[in-house]
Amino acid sequence: MKSFNDFYVDKEEEFVIRFQELKERIERLKDKSSHSEMYTSDCEFSEEMMDIRKDLVTIHGEMVLLKNYSSLNFAGLIKILKKYDKRTGGLLRLPFTQFVLRQPFFTTEPLTRLVHECEENLELLFPLKAEVIQSSPSPENPARPPVDCATNALPEASSTLGEETMYIYRSTLAAMRVIKGLQKASSTSNPFSFSSLFSNQDGDGTGAVTAEHSAANSPVSQFCVR
């Protein structure tokens, strides 16, 4: 239990710091643009925007994976306790489950807020990417490549983003498939089953990621190459 908590808390603190740094980079970029500071080229500004975009997608995927780490560890503990009670005839599962629900690795509300804020930043910044990068056509480069309607990004940008984030994206989707399977309704009603507990958490807007709130079904999935 201690190793679960230590790992989760360390990673959560790391994400808070990294995401704050990303927000500061975004603000600096906005300030630079609003004060009409000149970039050496349109390409330089586009590259800076793309770097921020890639970092946002990456940290979003890592945060989703951490939430699924919480879910998987909880599922493992419940299965161990279920087998223990079945073999011994004890009732350890109920009190231990109540204890686990109060542990840091299962208290994912702050991380959930970070994930949502990250998605909001992606939606805010990049659906209007073409207008943000260049409000009017450049005389030197009047013919710009068409924007991909599925991702609102230039084709070459999507390609670069996909190459560098494909691993984290695939890992996220794999984790989501596992969680979706674990959360299938049980054949017997049990308020302390894995699916019941996470269903209740979702109703409160907290807890680990579920299928309907996953990276695969959230708006942010449009920023990853399928």
From TrEMBL:
Domain of life: Eukaryota
A single BP term in Gene Ontology: cellular response to phosphate starvation
Pfam families per the UniProt record, alphabetical: SPX
Residue ranges constituting the SPX domain according to the UniProt record: 1-98
Name used for this protein in its record: SPX domain-containing protein
Source organism (scientific name): Vigna angularis var. angularis
Organism taxonomic ancestry: Eukaryota, Viridiplantae, Streptophyta, Embryophyta, Tracheophyta
